[in-house]
């Protein structure tokens, strides 16, 4: 994993980079876009939800 800082007009964000197989990457991208269409959430909201769920699942 590698993190680099980026800035957004409304808040400061940090980029989180993960290395996964091409199949996992495509499946994740497909799932994110399906959730955007189903829920109306933004890509950022879905990514934040994903990280929060991961941390809670692993007791972090």
Description:
By secondary structure, the protein is an alpha+beta fold. It has one domain. It has two helices and two strands. It has a two-stranded antiparallel sheet. Strand 1 and strand 2 form a beta hairpin. About 8% of the residues have low confidence.
Q: Which helices and strands appear, and what pairs or packs with what?
A:
Layout: E1 2-7, E2 12-17, H1 22-39, H2 43-57
Antiparallel strand pairs: 1-2
Q: What number of domains?
A: 1
Topology pattern, helix = H, strand = E: EEHH
What's the multimeric state?
A: single chain
* Strand count: 2
Strand arrangement in the largest pleated sheet = 1-2
Residue runs with pLDDT of under 50 for 5 or more positions: 5-9
Average pLDDT metric? 87
Please outline what is shown here.
By secondary structure, this protein is α+β, with helices and mostly antiparallel strands.
Key attributes of the depicted protein:
2 helices, alpha+beta, 60 residues, single chain, two-stranded antiparallel sheet, 2 strands, 55% helix
